[in-house]
Structures are given as structure tokens and as C-alpha cells.
Write a structure and sequence with these properties.
The structure is a homohexamer.
Chain A (H helix, E strand, L loop, with lengths): L7 H16 L5 H6 L5 E8 L3 E2 L3 H11 L4 E4 L6 E2 L4 E8 H31 L6 E4 L8 H10 L3 E2 L8 E3 L1 H7 L2 H12 L5 E3 L12 H11 L6 E3 L7 H5 L5 E3 L2 H4 L6 E5 L2
Parallel strand pairs in A: 6-7, 6-11, 8-9, 10-11
Antiparallel strand pairs in A: 1-5, 1-12, 2-4, 3-5
Amino acid sequence: MTPSPLPTVMIEPLVRMALLEDLGRAGDLTTDAIVPAAHRATTVLVARQPGVVAGLDLARLAFQLIDPAIEMRVERGDGAALAPGDVIATISGPARGILTAERVALNLLCRLSGIATATASVVAAVRDTRTDIVCTRKTTPGLRAIEKYAVRVGGGSNHRFGLDDAVLIKDNHVAIAGSVTEALKRAKSGVGHLVKIELEVDTLVLLDNMNPETLTKAVAMVAGRAVTEASGRITPATAPSIAATGVDLISIGWLTHSVSVLDIGLDFKN
Amino acid sequence: MTPSPLPTVMIEPLVRMALLEDLGRAGDLTTDAIVPAAHRATTVLVARQPGVVAGLDLARLAFQLIDPAIEMRVERGDGAALAPGDVIATISGPARGILTAERVALNLLCRLSGIATATASVVAAVRDTRTDIVCTRKTTPGLRAIEKYAVRVGGGSNHRFGLDDAVLIKDNHVAIAGSVTEALKRAKSGVGHLVKIELEVDTLVLLDNMNPETLTKAVAMVAGRAVTEASGRITPATAPSIAATGVDLISIGWLTHSVSVLDIGLDFKN
Amino acid sequence: MTPSPLPTVMIEPLVRMALLEDLGRAGDLTTDAIVPAAHRATTVLVARQPGVVAGLDLARLAFQLIDPAIEMRVERGDGAALAPGDVIATISGPARGILTAERVALNLLCRLSGIATATASVVAAVRDTRTDIVCTRKTTPGLRAIEKYAVRVGGGSNHRFGLDDAVLIKDNHVAIAGSVTEALKRAKSGVGHLVKIELEVDTLVLLDNMNPETLTKAVAMVAGRAVTEASGRITPATAPSIAATGVDLISIGWLTHSVSVLDIGLDFKN
Amino acid sequence: MTPSPLPTVMIEPLVRMALLEDLGRAGDLTTDAIVPAAHRATTVLVARQPGVVAGLDLARLAFQLIDPAIEMRVERGDGAALAPGDVIATISGPARGILTAERVALNLLCRLSGIATATASVVAAVRDTRTDIVCTRKTTPGLRAIEKYAVRVGGGSNHRFGLDDAVLIKDNHVAIAGSVTEALKRAKSGVGHLVKIELEVDTLVLLDNMNPETLTKAVAMVAGRAVTEASGRITPATAPSIAATGVDLISIGWLTHSVSVLDIGLDFKN
Amino acid sequence: MTPSPLPTVMIEPLVRMALLEDLGRAGDLTTDAIVPAAHRATTVLVARQPGVVAGLDLARLAFQLIDPAIEMRVERGDGAALAPGDVIATISGPARGILTAERVALNLLCRLSGIATATASVVAAVRDTRTDIVCTRKTTPGLRAIEKYAVRVGGGSNHRFGLDDAVLIKDNHVAIAGSVTEALKRAKSGVGHLVKIELEVDTLVLLDNMNPETLTKAVAMVAGRAVTEASGRITPATAPSIAATGVDLISIGWLTHSVSVLDIGLDFKN
Amino acid sequence: MTPSPLPTVMIEPLVRMALLEDLGRAGDLTTDAIVPAAHRATTVLVARQPGVVAGLDLARLAFQLIDPAIEMRVERGDGAALAPGDVIATISGPARGILTAERVALNLLCRLSGIATATASVVAAVRDTRTDIVCTRKTTPGLRAIEKYAVRVGGGSNHRFGLDDAVLIKDNHVAIAGSVTEALKRAKSGVGHLVKIELEVDTLVLLDNMNPETLTKAVAMVAGRAVTEASGRITPATAPSIAATGVDLISIGWLTHSVSVLDIGLDFKN
């Protein structure tokens, strides 16, 4: 199921900022000098690689904030699988605006599509298991909301959005508390019983960077009494064996911090 | 030569925004519940991979904006080559603040170090040529200034910072103008002779995505009358043969849009 | 007379901020999961208590910033007296947007209506006197402009909007100056004769927290040579006897700092 | 247990905005005209009512953003019970800055202390039960983080911080879905199993606005299989009988939307 | 009397913005390339023209936001009369920061000093009369607070700071109302008796652009029953004859909209 | 050729800020009290002086941000030569909005038109030479983009937009480096060969503040090997003799820092 789009009010500040960053103090010198104001163009967003598209609302906003007369007709919406050559959307209107907004629109669209594509590839690799793929807080500063959205578009789930929406006890917290028991006790008394508490275990029951055999044992020990989550550089190739251990979640940082963009281009049709 | 650091006034808004994005509406639930306010810690930033570090000023600012009592002593500054296990910096002070700022500091530091590392690997591959490595406008929205800085740390140069600091005539501009000659004429009359004008040639003299043989011919044809620049998915492996053609610049988008983070961790020493 | 509405440019930043505060980093999880995008609804804003409505422009903006397709038809505009069950406005359009914006719209509308209602009750209590009801600078941080607007809707007037639009000499200023005379002298020479100068008297002629008898004497002593103002926890019950002393103004902090919201609900009609 | 203070980076934007709102375009005309720049003062924040103090960090920031030379020594920190006349803190330094920042500091401090005081009174009323007091999303626009903090200071807990940190299915969602079962099904498939799902029941098992007898039956029917929560205009007087039903949570909107400020004054000692 | 300085919290956003505008996306290329980080300098701000200095706090902030290690010792503070060659302040510290902040500091300082100088010249021209010199709302967008401050430094007074701090009835308002009487009536009933009401008369009693003879008659007709104000391109040369008419105020737009900067330079001493 | 307009996304933040600065915390008291909401007006922007108009997009935005129902029909667009009495544009719609936005619209329009007019007068003075007129970084803080645009409208060119878009070596840089040669060497190695490097010469070959004879010799010495630029208080009167020396550029700071506004008024037609 495709996730709901983020409301415009959430993405507009980011798109405005990205445009201002690119326009600088004088705007698009090249286009302004060469392209007549009255020149109109019809262009298409075309996939140059197979993948999953995400971020069309941001691209549309980039074009329309530069010139509200630009129209975008979506052929393959967020979540659609793309083959090379597939037309994603048709963008038409004043050529100046299309050229001026092009780079910002593509920077956003290619990045989010890259995240959705990578997520989808791991999700597909564990399709026959009960394991969910989740992302982490290792997101690009300023882009967390849209990168997590792209993970959802790719079929993944989102772990914590920030430091404030769950307790996640890590090894350093345990070390400072003195024991897992004490850390849990403090967490429970500190946040009341409304906040979800998670424990990152990587000493005794090492879910972090464990091999599949150990992981299987760990999952068996937990025996459904808690949600189990594996992490540690898991790829589409290694994900199936990890998922086969019965772990509930596989958490993957590189989906947001080290992913390649999906190559999408803007072609002029006239 | 290591580039000058960016003034704090340029990076502070980004670091503040990244912290607020992570703190959300309630702050660090876990740390606040578990770690006593008076607990102090000494921690080290440690390289887990070989690479080049970049972004220490941003990391420091992340810690100090959370708690000004946190001190950071740099052992290997921006531009230093790292071996796995190398200590980059020692961070000491109130443990709460260190834990709360950790993820934002690492998100910034690992990303910029990833860019510097990738840049350095390509720069090293063309070390014996006269070719410079440059980045593009394919940067992360909101991070252009710091990503271009990281490219400089890695030994690369920066191409246009935005639409407003040079004319760059691309194929679509030429197509709309009707000819290269007309596009150049309009550009010259439009912006006066203070603005640098560049021409992206990818039809007759195809520097974009050309193979080395064609590229060599193209460079010979230009014969020093212009700065030549090659682009198109160039990697450390392919860069030497491209540089051997005598091209002035190799422009690489993936340095900023598809790079992997450098793995750097924060280890508690006490 | 109903006061003029505040221009959209003044209220939009606040409404955007309030929406972002509520949407967080993932938007309305509940509505996005349950309500189909195509589902449309017709809803009504209904008074659950008697009172005076204020803030409809802010409510409309909350809905329309979430989805411009939402329409609001006002039945009883700002300043209208409400009986329980009265329909204030009909809001129709995509159900998702209506549900997502509902809480922010109500938070703004109920608060401002609460202020207007409280103001109107005190204004009504002194209707037969020449005394005006004014609010203070004890407003909610960030909401001063709209809270003062709500006081105007309720029939009250606004005292100083900030530290910069009049001189108001308080007891601590007098104490530092050494005497009322000296404080007035400094004020007059310091700000020129364009700025209104007011004196808060609470030692000899104690208008602040005085009982009605003393207040009557004080007003008589002033004899029209100055505008007199009484303050100090005045309620609809005590206002008539205070106004009967002939005081020009009654200044009431609780209208903005301790008022109850007016209970207004959003009912779905289909 | 007193909750951790919010990091300065979270509260500084709000305090700056509140100061600018009060300073307007010319600053503090009165103080600038009357008080010599060299005049120093020692002042105390004094409780004029019994209550619980909250928000001292915001007050300190207000003073120090106006003049970093102002010092604040806290006598009774956030969470302390106050009797009338109790000194909360001593503030000393340049008199100008103290006078200029006074109103903003008090507006923040009195509001948050009012919330903490009201929360504490309800918490005390259910002290001998297992019921927790929680606040809602009916907070002041822009102040959600600090108002929820004040509820924690008063001994309460925080329910959802926004639309994005849990699913809360209300009657309108159920109506649109067609049934509770369908709404739950959609929610579970829409958000994955990481997000907490809550159901607001007010038809068959009416926890919202139920009387204690019905509530007792409802709690018995749930029998621990879910967290139960009662809401609907609950006050310190009515809370004990509600808590006696065995309900897990009592949710109270008026703690943040209709609370009175706690009266705290700033007295000059010299 | 020199006016009080504006609090830092009021001027810091403007100075930050001005620095970012100048630093762009890469900072000070020239200084970073040429000046060693360890190089320290001592420099002086020197008057190149006679005038009155204003804006030293903004200049200091520009330097210190670039590098907190830069120190500024003021020799002639805001309001001081300058002769060519006079040293205004000594600025010492890291040479890089001084060079990087120089232009922004001078842009602010020279503009405000230009306004103070122009104001002082008109104030001096009417020194022997009872007429005050006031500025208007014809200020530079974004700089109103500091330009009005500079007028105060020059000995002038400030008229309205914005549309919201007094009623000023102009000819178009009168035309729409139908008559002066009706306009005044509406104003009085619309804003209550706390807001000052002014009337710009330029039909019958034409104070705007009147010659001195007519103006004298007009002032006589008013006979002290109102504050009279003359406007219309008044210069130091024409001001004395205008003031001699007995008018209370001379309002001058060009003090803020068409003034020349005062030439102040930054000289390196080592 | 008229330069391209700046995209709305670049100018909207400035216009919003200017409106908020003028509206303050209560909006347009006068207009709200006197002008009925339904009153409509037709008004014209009229030149009161000869000049060149610039900034109509900013004026339109000021009106439409206050009330989208206001329409502006341009008769003489940016770059048009104006004679006194010429109608620049017709603005019609709700009278309240027109009056409320009038001052901000005129503040922007008159300032930019003043800059365009001054630029055009110098450009005309050197019309028969090959010399270009350029502006500097001595712009109003916050207005650099639009002031540089106004220079382009007047026929001038823009020099550096900020510290980051070219290297400009000044005397202090040379002094710190020890010699011009060393400064150039550091600049070249520091910024790579993509960044333009300029040298401000004012010792041996003194282009800054030189008289025409010396300047002619200097230009001859350079002999086309570099772009030459003269600066130093050049006016329309002195520009022709400077241009006659053959210098490429004349750089003029007063075009942006000390220019007079062009007098443009808003007249009501009904």
C-alpha cells in the first residue's frame, strides 16, 4: 500500500530553502540570458534505471514555486515500479521556470527514489518471511521526514523518528546505569507507561552484528515475549538468512545514509 | 592544503535545525530517564574504516549547542587520513549531553567524511595528471555549502555553487536558442563580461559520457583555447584513463549525491 | 462594532507553526491509515457553551493550509453571540484534511473565543458606565496580536502592545528615579512629546488593588486631568462597583493569561 | 521525580520570539528613559500563591538574552512546592535588563507554574490509586513542548505529542471506516507494528464522559487486556471517584487549555 | 542625550542575515586563501568625513559573530561628533575574521552614521526653536528599528513605528470617509481613547508642502489645540524658516530613504 | 535589454518581512477604523520625477500579500523611462488593502527605481565608450539581490555578489601576504583555477582614486592583459573622462549605498 503523501505544509519549507540555495543572489543567469520569457516547453521525467519512484510532490512543488504556470501530470506515482525509459511525469509550461527548477526537483526526486528503490530491494528479499524492514535515525540532517517517507514508499517501516518518541536503551545507557535491570527500572519510572521502551542488546544476546546461527538462538530465547530486531550492515543479499532466523525487524541505516540516487532525467520533447 | 573552516555563523543554523529535528517535542527520553545529570564521561570519536575526516566543526557545535560544558579536543583535524582505530577527537563532559547530541554529530561527521574520502580517492587516482576533480550542483538540499566544503577537504574543487555564479549553457539552452553560436551570443549580451560562461558540449564534441579516445580528440581540438571538462559516472577506476586524455576537469556528481558515509563511532572510555 | 480582521500575512506564520508542531515528522498517522483519500465530509463547528466567537480566520487558514480544497462557510462570524448548539460554520471537503487540521483549528478558535467571551462578560457588566475594559501585556508568548484581537472582538480595548508603544512608569521605575517627579522628568526628556506617558500609581493614590471607596476618592482627586485606570483581579462580579467610581479604564490581565477556552466542537454531518 | 530540563536549543527560539514580540521596534521606552545604564538591582521571584513552580530555565533565558550580565540563583527549582511568600530565585544585575525582561519571564514562568500546580492538584487527588494523570493535544499553539514539560513537572504524564507519534482512533475515524474492526485493521496494516494504536471508545463502552458506575463496568470488561483511559472535564474533586474505577489513565485537556497562571511576582530588594 | 542602545536580541537576527548574505555558500575566498589563520591584526575605524557616529553595536556584533576572539574598544561612541581622521574604535584579533566581517560592519555603520549625521544637521539648524525633527515610515525594509534608532542618535524623534501605533488620517482616508469630521468620528469609535489620533491636513490647512507664510497662519489657527507638523522635502537650509513658523514638528522622509552614508574606513595598523 | 525578473520565491520573504515590520501587532489602525471593508478603489502609481522604474514585482507582491483580490496592471514595466506624471501601473481592488500595503510597496519601488535611475544616468554618460558601469558589495543589508537587480535594470552590471563568488585581492591582503606576487600565488593555489581572481591595485598602478592621466597610463600598461576597473566616487559628471581612459569597468558604490529614492506616488482615481 502506498503511504499517504505528506501535507504540503510539511514539505514546502524544505523545497523553498532548496530553491533559494540554488538561486543564490541573482537567480538562473544562464536561462534568463538565453531562453525567451514566452518560450514554452513540454518535458518528461524519465527513468534511466529500474527502481521505485518517490518524491513527486516535492518535485511538483519545486516547479510550481518557481512558476505557478508550470503543470505536472503524473504517469507513475510514488511507489510505482520503473523500468528504464518509463515516463514518470509530463511537465509543461514556461521553459524558463522548468529549466530553473530542474536541478532542485531532480535532486529531491532522485534521492527519495533511490531510498525507495533500495528499501524495496531489501523488502523483496524478505518477502516470504514475517520480518519487517525498518530504517534508523541515521538520516540526512533536515530531511528526516521525507527520507522516512521514502522508506515507507519502498515498503519499509519507520523506527524512531527522533529522540522523543520512544525509549531506546543502548549499551552506553546500560553501562552508566550499571545493569540492564537498573536501566529498565529507571526508564519505566522516568517516562510512565505510555512510552514504548526498547532495549538494544549487544552483549549477552547480541542481535547487533550477530551471525544467523546466534541470532536464531537469540530469537528462540526471546520466544515472542518481545519484538526482536537485527541490525548491522544488512544488504539484500544477506537479508534473507537474517530474516529466516525469525527476527521481527531488520533495521538498516544505509537506506538513508549511504544510498545511491535513482537516475531520473528530464527530457525536453519540444 | 586543508581549506579554511566555514565560519560558525554559516553552519550554526543547520546544526540547530538538525538537533531540533532529532529532539522533537520532548527531548532525549532515554538519556534523561537513565543517566544522572551529574554523570560525566570521556568519549572518543574513532574511525572504523580508512578514510579522510571532514566536519569536525559541525560535530563540535552539535555537542556544544546541547551543553556548552562539553569539550572536544581534536587529534586528527579535517583533512587528516584515518586508519581504522584512529582516534579523531576526545569529547568529554556531562554524559547526558554527549549521548543526546551523538547521533546528530555523527550524522554530519560521517556524511562529510564520506564525501571527503570519496573525493580523495579520485584525486589520488589522477595525482600524476594535471586534471582537477570537481563536484556539481547535485548536492543534498540544504547541505550544499558543507558538502562542497567536504569536497575541498578531500582535495577536490568546487564547480558552480548555484545557478547564479556562472553561465553554464547546456543542451536544452542550445536547443532553445537554435544554435551554440546564438546561445553564446545571448549569454554574452545578457550577463556582461564579468560572469564566466561555460558550454556543456554533448553533441558534436561529446565530452559528456565520451570514451577516452573520443575525449582525447576533443581535447586536442580545443587546444587550450578553453577549459575542458569531462563528466559521466567517472570512478577512481576509470578516472586515470580519462585524465590521461588531458582534460582539465573531471566533474563527478556522485561525490555528493550517492556517496557512502565514513563509519566513525563514538566510544565511551569511562 | 466588530474589529477588522488581521491580514492573513500576520496570522499565517503562527498557523503554519501550529500545524507543523502537531504534524511532527510523519503527519497524521491515524487519518492517513484509516480514511481513504477520496472520502469527502461535511462538518459543522458547533458551540457547546454560550459565548462569543473569535478566530474564524485562523481556523479557516488551518484547514486550507492542510488542503486548499477545504471550504468553510461562516454562519456566525467573529463577534457573534453563541448559544449552545449554534452552528458557527460549515466546513466541507476531503475528510482527511478536515480531520488532520481539526485540533489546531479548534485550539486556536476555542482559545480566542474564550478570550472574547470573557471580555464580553466584563464589558456587559459595565455597560451602563463610561468605563472601558482593557487587556494587558500578560499574554501568551507568541499570541499577543491574536489575543489582543480577541479582546477587541469581545468589546474590550487594548492597552500597550509592547514595551515600545508607550511609556508606562511603574513603582520600580519611580523607586529607581527617586521620585515620581524625577521619573516623569526623565521620561519626558527621554522620549520626546510624541510618546504617550502613563504612570502606574500604587503608593499614595493606590489605583492598583484599591477598594471602591478609595478609588472614588482617587478619581475625584484626578478630576479629569488624566486618564484613570484600575487594575487588580477584577471580575464581572466586581467590575460594576469599580466602574461606578468613575474610573476611565479597568485593566484585566486574566482575560489573556487565565481564561478558559470556549467549548466548540466539530461535528461530522455525513 | 523532577523531569529533566529541556535543552536550551529547544527553548531558546521561543524565548527570543517572546522578547521580540514585547520589544517591538523600539525596545523598552520607559526603562531606557528612566533607569541609568549603570544602575544595578537585586530582585527576587516570590510566590504570591501556593503552587508548584515550573519554567525557571525559560525565565533565566529571558533575562540573559536581554543582558548576559544578569545572574539568577535558584532557591526552589522546578517541581518545588511553594507557599505564599516563598522566594523562588534571586535575580541580580543591571536593573535595565531585569526590568525589560521581567514581563516575558513572568509570562512564561507563571503560565508553566500554573500548569504544574493544576496537574499536581489532580495527581494528589488520585495519589492512592494506580491511575496516571495525562494531558492532551489541547495545548497552546507554539508552546506544546513546554506545556507538556510543565505537566511532567506537576507529576503528570504526557499523552501523544502530535499526530505522528501514535495512532489514536476516534469516533469519526470509526464512522468513516464503517466499524471498529475495520478501522483497527486499516490502522494495523497502515502503520506496521511499531506504532502504538489506541482506540477512543465512546459509543458502546463509553469511557468518554461516562459516570463512575458505567466506567467501573467498562474497566472490568477490558480486564487488563488494554490500557483504559477516562476523559471529560475531570477535576481534582471528581478525579478520586473516577480513579477508583480502576481506570489506568485520566486524560485532562484543561490542564493546558484553561488553566490559571500561578501568581509569581518580581520584587526589588534594593 | 544619547538614546539607549537596542538590546542585542533585537539586532542579532539582522546582523546574522547580513553576514550570511555576504558569505554566500563558500565564505570569504580571498581571505581564506591569502591570510594565515594565526595572523593577528590591530585595526581602527576612522572617520573620513565629519559627522555623527551611530551603529557601533551592530559593527561589533558583525565582527564577533564571525570570530568571538575579535575585540572592539570604542573611542567615540554612538552620538559622538566626528572630525575627519578621528578614530572611532580599535578592532583587534584574528586578521581573517576582521577582513571577513569588514564590509558588513561598514555597511551597517556607515548607513546608520549617515542617518545620524543628516539628522544632526537638521536638528542643529532648528536648535533655537521649539521644533522637533521627526522621521517617517519611509525606511528601508527590514531596517526600521535601527534606522529610527539612528535618527534618535542624531537628536531627532521618531514618529509612528508602524501602521499599528497611532491613527494617522491622510487625505485618502478623508476622501473615503467623506469628510474630516466623519473620518475622525470613525477613528475615535474604532480604536477607543487609548490610541493617539493624528490628522494629516493638506487641503484647507495645508501643512504638507506649504510655504512658511501659509504655515504660520495655519499654526496660528491651531493655536496650541493640537500638535502641528510640517513635512515636504525640508532640508537643513529650509528648516529654520519652517521652524520659525512655530510648528511643533518637522517630519523628514529623506533622513531614512535618501541619505548618503557617512564615509568611515577600516585601517590596518599592523 | 531589461534583465529577467527575480523569481517570486526570491523576493517573497523580503516583502513579507517588510509588511510585518509595518503592520506590527495590530495592523493598520487608521484604515481599519475609517475605510469600510466593501469599499473598492482604483489607484495609479505615478512618477513625480523623471527616472527609470524598477521593482514592480515587489510592489505587486506587497499589495497581493495583503489582499489577493488586488490587481495591478503595469503600464510601464521595469526599465521604462519615466517622465513626471507618467502612469506606471493601475492598482485596483479593495481600498483597505491598497492603503495598508501602500507604504511598503512604495518604499521598495521608490528605492529600486532610485537605484535604476542613478545607474542609468551614469551608463548614459559613458554610452559612447566601451566602459561598463558596475556596482559593489556596498549594498543595504538584506537587499543585495534586489539592489543588484535594480542596477541591472538601469543598464549596469554586477560585480561580486558576495565574498564567495570571486577572489578580490585588496591592499590589506597584499600587505599580509608580503607582496602582490605572494598574494596571487596563495590565491591561485587556494581556490583552484575555476574561481576568477581579481587584484585591487592602489599602490603602484593606482586605479583606485587615480586621476584620468595616471589612469590612462595604467590602462596602457595593462594593455588588455587584464580587465581594468576604476573606482572612487565617480559621478555622471566625472564618468566620461574616466571612461575615456579606456578602462573596462567603472565601479560605483554610491549607486546602492547613497542613492536618493525616485519619487513615485499612489493617486486615488475614485
